[in-house]
Amino acid sequence: MWALIYLDRHPETLQEAKKEQQEVIERRASSQKGLTLNEIKQMEYLPKVIDETLRRGNIGFTFFRKAAADVNIKGYSIPKGWKVLVWPSAVHMDPNIYSNPNEFIPSRWELQNHRLKGRAFIPFGTGTRSCPGADLAKLEISIFLHYFLLNYKLEEVNPKGPINYLPLPRPADDCLARIIKLP
């Protein structure tokens, strides 16, 4: 949902993502039916759109971790055994990590422009308890966006409507929209 909303609200990003998907089709052999994993791996711009979407519209509200040892972080002591609540939105929207965090900027994911500081991108959790389906989720998003961008357009009914942020960012109207089939 968020990827479609951000693309709809950022026409230049939409055009770049759509152009890449059209180029995938143009390179494809005429006998080939459907998108291949190799084609997805060759995409350069769509993964940036997906990562930026995951940064802005977190799918996980929070997760807990248990301190395995006494830890001191910036003057705060966390005793061994205590549980720590990690809030991905606080990390992903931190201006010390991401410049202009409230802006949707897929180009921030270009290697030369953005170096993540340790655990600064955690849409699927982190460490040994990271979501085992993270790669599958990104693959599914890539497939969906590929076909959607080539065949449909989203028109939000209330694009300037309010957003509820708790427990997760979500348009207050649940993204009431029209899906238009392209010619």
UniProtKB/TrEMBL annotation:
Coiled coil: none annotated. It comes from the Eukaryota. The keyword Metal-binding applies. Keywords: Heme, Iron, Membrane, Metal-binding, Monooxygenase, Oxidoreductase, Transmembrane, Transmembrane helix. Its main location: membrane. It is a single-pass membrane protein. It is found in: Membrane. InterPro entries: Cyt_P450, Cyt_P450_CS, Cyt_P450_E_grp-IV, Cyt_P450_sf. Gene3D superfamilies: Cytochrome P450 (1.10.630.10). It holds the Pfam family p450. PANTHER family: BETA-AMYRIN 11-OXIDASE-LIKE, CYTOCHROME P450 26. Belongs to the cytochrome P450 family. This is Cytochrome P450.
